[in-house]
Amino acid sequence: MWVPCGGLAGENGSQAVLQRANTESAGGDAAGAAADYRVYLVANPSDTEAWLKLASADCDRGDEVGAAGDFARYLALAPDDQPPKAARYPRGNISGYLEHDSHFADTFYGIDISYDLALTKLTPYLIVHDTADTRSGDAGISQIFSDNAVVVNFALRTGLGSHGLAFAEAGHGFGLRGSPSSSDFRAGLVYFNEFGSSKTAHTAANGSLVEYSRFANNVILYGSLAHDFPLTGQLRGVVGTNLGADLHRDYFNNFGEIFGGIQYSLHGITVRYVRLYGTYLNRGLDRPDPVDYSSTRPVLLFGFPF
């Protein structure tokens, strides 16, 4: 999570922040450690060990994209004759969501399990995508949420700075609930960043631009911005927005949404309950009437390294 470096008093202040980050990491506070490592690295961007520690902290809190970017920065800075210190960097990650949407009376889930085959700048990895919903065929649901398949792919990725990556995957998708099986190729860009602190106000931004062979080579853009703030204890308020658009102009992939509610997070798991208002965008073809909708969405989010 990104925190401005104002207030650092030169080398002594910088080292104090690093020491605090190390203490937080040793105590299991991955979010606090990640925040302080980022502050330290603003003033010390060439500290390879700190980039590696940040990668571990981001991975521990389920930020796979951030961890990959951190580790790519470490590899770019590490001298060629220095053996990688990557034994502490977990190679595997499992993340996903479980969500019920009252507007469609449908429940969706998605699970991604990935494992890095090598710790290099261009990282080869294996990944399994399992995505499904309980009412297949409902009109109006974005393809990336309503796909019913288990996809097994070999993939390559490379970091783009500290918060982005480019990837390409190829393999096979096994259809679920009557969906067809087919070969699978997807490639695109992913962005993830955080601002503020999990102890105060905090904002998470993420987005993706991906081409999917299984959707007739459609290119789908998806973005989300969520701002959470403390209410009491671990309970936090949350407000945000979602945006979708695609190359084929399918109306169900072209939408804008705003939401607000509450969330509770603990050890890589977040439970969120929100009220949402959305509309299908003008660029979408054959939009339904009415184009506006509302929904109540309880959501479970999780992410764990292994």
What's this entry about, in short?
Helix content is 20%, strand content 48%. By secondary structure, it is α+β, with helices and mostly antiparallel strands. Mean pLDDT is 85; it is low at 1-11.
In which order are the strands of the major sheet placed?
1-2-3-4-5-6-7-8-9-10-11-12
Structural category: alpha+beta
Report the principal-axis shape.
Answer: globular
How are helices and strands ordered from N to C?
A: HHHHEEEHEEEEEEEEE
Model regions low in confidence, pLDDT < 50 over at least 5 residues? 1-11
CATH class of the largest domain: Mainly Beta
Approximate strand percentage: over 45%
Fraction in helix: 10-25%
Rg from C-alpha positions?
A: 20 Å
Predict the CATH topology of the largest domain. Answer: Porin
The span between the termini is 21 Å
Mean pLDDT: 85
Largest sheet: 12 strands, antiparallel, barrel
Number of strands: 12
Would you identify the CATH architecture of the largest domain? Beta Barrel
Number of domains: 2
Total helices: the number is 5
Structure description:
There is one protein chain. This protein is α+β, with helices and mostly antiparallel strands and 306 residues long. It has two domains: 1-61, no CATH class; 92-305, Porin (Beta Barrel). 20% of the residues lie in helices and 48% in strands. It has five helices and twelve strands. The chain has helices spanning 10-26, 30-43, 48-60, 64-77, 143-146; strands at residues 92-101, 106-116, 122-133, 149-160, 164-175, 182-196, 202-212, 218-232, 235-246, 255-266, 269-280, 292-305. The protein has a twelve-stranded antiparallel β-barrel with strand order 1-2-3-4-5-6-7-8-9-10-11-12. Helix 3 (48-60) runs antiparallel to helix 4 (64-77). The longest helix is centred in the N-terminal third of the chain and has 17 residues, at 10-26. The chain is globular, with a radius of gyration of 20 Å. Residues 1-11 have low confidence and may be disordered.
